[in-house]
């Protein structure tokens, strides 16, 4: 069973919930090696998209939801995360344009386009201690799952799990992009806030998908 | 956290509203999305200059909107780059037909959001150029980092580029002088105390009763190293030496010496630091032609200071001296 | 105590030395005993104006020496009135044959030391008049106290009296307008945090993490009451209401609204407070004709603010708008 | 035996020592209800007079020493204490002008003139919680001692003891003059710094006198 508009809307709702719930945690991660606003930024952006979900025209696709999310994040989040996540969702939207229901392959395409969008704008490589370090393993894991025949939901779950591991794995890294890079060696020993928010967002997508399957 | 605020989420809105009321002769403030525009914008036949960035660095940038400096300022949330929308709106509002210069401090967020706004403005037929300031020598510049941060030198870029625009220079000329000022400016700062972002509610870092942070950024980002507090003269030496050696500034150079407070530093300490900085320059044969001392680019209530040197040429001096009339910098009219 | 200082005993000397270097175009500084004199003093045929008091309130007073404001400033040790000698020297240095006005904040020490200096100057044939400022409504005025303190209204007295002197008014006229400004100005302040006098090394008082002091003086003297922190709007109301009701200011009055930072307060908070103050005045039909927002009379690094209202008449407005060129206040030239 | 130039010089030396020794204590008292500078101010003033003592011409009297002290304090202390103590010592000097050796009556005259000088300049009444609350009982006690035939040294000791008690007795008072008056009721419960410095200065005088007698 593929992931449809209901899933997409649910993903955004659960993402907003997760950003609210982890707002302080993300702020604290960002205080350690950045400027202490990441949780606030993400929460502001996702709260802004919620009311707009109700106005989606009938017949909207997952791609439309992702585009709405992208433009809202771009115009409300600011900072580094706004344009980066905005671009990610915009490219993800483009990768699944017109599709009513996303299968496992579509999930892979969506995630890959998202990751590529972030890299295009931010120029970070894996290992630079940024959100790319959550996105990249997520894309690989999703591809692996899809290739071995997993469902869309399971594929997304694999991506979410890999993102969570990727976020943890940023801890020993020395940052080379974003604000944390100013710290040099002193950035080691702290988790990257953007990688962590990525993990939470993909987990929200997976939860929405598994909820859809079981329903 | 003790602050003179109401709802932490409304700090920027309410503060900018107060700024608009207090300086109605100088600026007009558009809300939703928020941007501050020179009262007589757009000035026809003049290059427009827009700057912006996270709030919490006041008087930067809104305090520099007015004759001879910025045409618009775009304040984001505290320490968070504004989104492209208000930057675009500001760009449109100040376009007097000669194009618009964006002055952007080198932070990933600022660069990306200004880039997007510039793309959108270009799509609307407005010629935009961006100058990215990156004068902070505290952070090693390298291919493998986000590069140097834009800090206090930004104020000097805004003043001098603003004067060039005011005298009628073309967009290319204004951008060239802005680049030239940035290329000849170097800064480094330190902090005695952290600052607290209103929505975070906790200090951005902690320092022991006898510790200071050398090489601090203007967002409370930790700096180069944490050391035990030293006498002011040693602290000045720790900042000015890397600044001098980076460009480098040499005997016979003419400079503007800018001692900037981080927001919570009393003037008595800034002038005390200035004294030592002037002494060091004198010893090295570097001539102070112009000075600026005060809280001009801040990190909320952080205590600390930064030292900026700008190597001057005749044109820069002329443009520095040109009349300016903004809330925070004013002379000649 | 963390401060950007060297020897605590040399803070004032070294800071004033830095000030002298940074503003050599505006002032000359005499040392031992220390006083800051307008570069072109004495201005012949102009009443000289001297103010002074303990240091730690910068930019008051040295920051106001220059065209259209003070002719000399006499900084004492931190929070300690200067002795008569430098006041006398300053008085002699600025006497241009039309007499000298002393602007003195109402503190026992300042009043006594300026009195002695005035007596000595009179003995040398210089005509001296003193105006004692006492605009702080926080302290009940009474026969049984030292009377009200002189606080932020002093800045307005110095600007307006300075403009009167600059246009050639006689000593009596300058003194009259200074008295008039003082009589029509009322202030009240509050603090979020204490300040630390360098030679004391300990904060002047302690406040819990959630406490603020209402009615604070500019030396960290505790005020009217200590309360739990409240939203900015309530704090503004607590300050502006007694200020309004004291004179009282009434509907139709034209005022200058001055929101002053105590030294460690970020601008974002001052403008936020200004917004509410303007709203309150609007509700009461009191018209804001002029504004001043910033750190103009401070208590070292104390966080907090004060609100001053000055009831304006046409002459005061004209004199307020007149050109001024000092380190801390400048317009019109 | 009267109090001569040696005593006067010793008084000033011991006063300087006492102000140094109690500098921090006086700062702390002033921090409680004033602006935290009294100890610093007094210490600065008395340190400034020390080198000048060596230049006193031969044949100087106690009155000359007091005058030198007065003018030095006026020109180095500042604040409220500078002019008040300056006036006190100036008037005290005047009251014993020309006398080579001070007897008990002269001590009373000297202290009374000092106290009156302070009241003249500062307009404080007893009970206003100022240095007057140390000076006034000192004058009374000195008069009582002198009237009952005490020596100059004993008279001064009586004055010093009364000043010390007077300083303690300022604690419950509500200040009505000086900086502490801004505190209103909240000034109660703290000792007045100027009263305390007065007690130390008179104690230094008494110690110099008893030292002189025993020597
Ligand atoms: N060049 C980049 N490429 C990818 N991600 C980046 C880059 N720069 C920053 N980030 C991500 O953005 C996060 C910070 O976002 P946020 O705190 O909202 O913005 P800002 O740094 O402007 O305050 C970092 O934790 C990191 O994951
Ligand atoms: N009007 C007055 N009459 C007598 N003594 C006074 C008066 N005002 C202040 N004092 C004394 O001066 C002391 C404070 O001195 P100091 O701290 O040196 O000066 P300032 O108050 O100017 O900081 C007070 O403790 C009090 O004893
Ligand atoms: Mg951040
Ligand atoms: Mg940020
Ligand atoms: Mg004092
Ligand atoms: Mg005192």
Structure at a glance:
Chain A has 215 residues and is mainly α. Chain A has helices at residues 5-21, 23-33, 38-53, 62-76, 81-95, 104-122, 132-147, 152-169, 193-214.
Assign the CATH topology of the largest domain in chain B. Rossmann fold
Q: Largest interface by residue count?
A: B-C, 62 and 62 residues
Tally of alpha and pi helices of chain A: 9
Mean pLDDT of chain B: 95
GO molecular function, one term (chains B, C): phosphoenolpyruvate-glycerone phosphotransferase activity
InterPro entries (chains B, C): DhaK_1, DhaK_dom, Dihydroxyacetone_Kinase
Pfam family, one (chains B, C): Dak1
Domain DhaK (chains B, C): 7-331
What does it look like?
- The complex is a heterotetramer, with two copies of chain A (215 residues) and two copies of chain B (333 residues).
- Chain A is mainly α.
- Chain A has helices at 5-21, 23-33, 38-53, 62-76, 81-95, 104-122, 132-147, 152-169, 193-214.
- Chain A is built from nine helices and no strands.
- Chain A is globular.
- In chain A, α6 (104-122) packs parallel to α8.
- In chain B, a hairpin with a 4-residue loop joins β1 (27-30) and β2 (35-38).
- Chain B contains eight helices and 14 strands.
- Chain B folds into two domains: 16-184, 3-Layer(aba) Sandwich (Rossmann fold), CATH 3.40.50; 185-322, 2-Layer Sandwich (Hypothetical Protein Tm841, Chain: A,domain 3), CATH 3.30.1180.
- In chain B, strands 1-2-4-3-5-6 form a six-stranded mixed beta sheet, sandwiched between helices.
- Chain B starts with 10 loop residues before the first helix and ends with a strand.
- The model of chain B has no long low-confidence stretch (mean pLDDT 95).
- In chain B, α4 runs antiparallel to α5 (171-183) and α6 (232-246) packs across α7 (267-283).
- Chain B is an alpha/beta fold.
- Chain B has helices spanning 11-22, 84-94, 108-123, 153-166, 171-183, 232-246, 267-283, 314-321; strands spanning 27-30, 35-38, 48-55, 72-78, 100-105, 128-133, 185-191, 211-214, 225-228, 254-261, 287-294, 304-311, 324-325, 330-331.
- The C-D interface holds C 33, 54, 76-85, 107-109, 112-113, 115-116, 138-140, 144-146, 149, 197, 199-200, 202, 204-205, 217, 219-223 and D 27-28, 31, 34-37, 40-41, 44, 74-84, 121-122, 176-179, 181-184, 186.
- The complex binds adenosine-5'-diphosphate (ADP) (2 copies) and magnesium ion (4 copies).
- One magnesium ion (MG) sits between chains C (54, 79-80, 109) and D (35, 37, 79).
- Chains B, C: Its EC number is 2.7.1.121.
- Chains B, C: This is Dihydroxyacetone kinase subunit DhaK.
- Chains B, C: InterPro entries: DhaK_1, DhaK_dom, Dihydroxyacetone_Kinase.
